[in-house]
Structures are given as structure tokens and as C-alpha cells.
Design a protein that fits this description.
Elements lengths: L1 E3 L2 E6 L2 E7 L3 E8 L7 E3 L3 H14 L2 E8 L5 H23 L7 E8 L2 E9 L4 E6 L8 E2 L2 E2 H15 L1 E9 L3 H19 L19
Parallel strand pairs: 5-6, 9-12
Antiparallel strand pairs: 1-2, 2-3, 3-4, 4-6, 7-8, 8-12, 10-11
Helix pairs in contact: 1-4, 2-3
């Protein structure tokens, strides 16, 4: 268990639990690798629940998320805080796999009907995110019950919490739902690749410095 300011992280080789408590909100994210079960997702945003389901489905892990607002009902806080906790949970699981060797980097193209997106993720102890929204559907202000800016905030939070680089290109898509679903599908597959065993690099990371610190 690691206890940071406002953050509590508990890990095992197959499970990571991250709780984040601030003046604004309380977040609990649990990521488990193993036999599939149904997720438990309670963010208060229907579309965001669906996108988290999509990420977990394509990443190949079980995901539980709860969020409780303590001050103002701001969707930006929901998405960013959950992104930070999920990023930290994924990074903690990846650290558990480093002694045996783990890929640590992944990329993927994924479609959703007319939409197409590309995602690349690299866990190197460096926090950065780039979300390029070329597709018309991804540039609209709203998608279902939330602002598209808050979807961007989720990926920004993930990069911060995971201390990783996230690059996302939504290149085609007229429908905003399809555009962001393609993005989350691609993001999930790229995360799955990050956790692929890589015995050649046992004890080291994707970056040549060999550490996530």
C-alpha cells in the first residue's frame, strides 16, 4: 500500500485499488486482471459510464468506479479525477509486472461504424497527453449527456495519474458517439498491449533509463 497526499493506492500482481479524496470529490477505482465479470460503473454520467466500459472491455480488465461529488456538480471534475485514479491504477499494475518483463507501450487503430481512431500509450514516468480531433463528430461541443471537453479531461487526467504519454487521434467520424467510442476502443486496445509480457526486458521499462521514477 502506498499513501500519497489525497491518494491511497493498494496493489497486488492482479489488482490495483486507488482512492482519491479531495475537497471536491471522492473517487474509488479498482482495476482487476483475470476472469471477466461485469463492471460496476457509477460516475453520474451515462455516456462516460459507457466509455469506461468500452475502455475496460478492450483493455481486458475488470473495472469498478464510484464517484461522489462533495461541492459543485462539475462534470470536468468527474472525468479528470476518475482519469487520474485510473491512470494511477494502471501504472501500479504495470509496476507489479516489471520484474517479469512487460511491454509498457502500446498502440492501436479501432473503428466504430464510420468513425476511426488511433491511440498510443507509453508508461515512462513522463506525463503528457495530446488529443487531436480531426473528425467532425469529435469537434462537436456535446456527446450524449456530457461535454466533449470533459472527455479530453479524462485522457489528460489519465496521463497525469499514470505518469505516461497518451496520444489520441480521432481521424474520422460524423457521429459524436461513434467518434468517441472509436477513441475509447483504440485506447483500451493500446492499454492491453502495454501489459503484454516482454521477458527480454525483465526488471526494466520501455524507456532506456529503466525506471518509471
Amino acid at each position: 500500500m502506498t499513501d500519497y497526499s489525497g491518494m491511497r493506492v493498494e496493489t497486488s500482481p492482479s489488482r490495483a485499488s486507488v482512492s482519491r479524496v479531495t475537497r471536491e470529490a471522492e473517487v474509488l477505482v479498482v482495476v482487476e486482471r483475470g476472469d471477466r465479470r461485469e463492471p460496476s460503473l457509477d460516475t453520474g454520467l451515462g455516456f462516460f459510464n459507457h466509455m469506461l466500459e468500452m475502455v475496460a472491455w478492450h483493455a481486458g480488465f475488470n473495472l469498478d468506479v464510484t464517484f461522489r461529488q462533495k461541492t459543485f456538480p462539475l462534470a470536468h471534475v468527474v472525468c479528470e479525477d476518475i482519469g487520474m485514479a485510473l491512470g494511477m491504477a494502471c501504472a501500479a499494475l504495470l509496476r507489479e509486472a516489471i520484474p517479469e518483463g512487460v511491454e509498457g507501450v502500446g498502440s492501436a487503430w479501432m473503428p466504430m461504424d464510420e468513425a476511426l481512431a488511433f491511440s498510443a500509450v507509453s508508461f515512462e514516468g513522463r506525463s503528457n497527453h495530446v488529443v487531436r480531433r480531426t473528425a467532425p463528430g469529435s469537434r462537436l461541443e456535446r456527446v450524449e449527456d456530457m461535454a466533449t471537453a470533459d472527455m479530453v479531461a479524462f485522457f489528460e487526467g489519465f496521463a497525469q495519474g499514470g505518469r505516461c504519454t497518451v496520444q489520441l487521434d480521432i481521424v474520422h467520424g460524423e457521429d459524436p458517439h461513434h467518434s468517441w467510442e472509436a477513441a475509447c476502443r483504440a485506447f483500451g486496445v493500446s492499454l492491453r498491449t502495454c501489459f503484454r509480457p516482454f521477458p527480454f526486458r525483465a526488471g526494466l521499462t520501455v524507456g532506456v533509463k529503466g525506471t518509471l521514477d
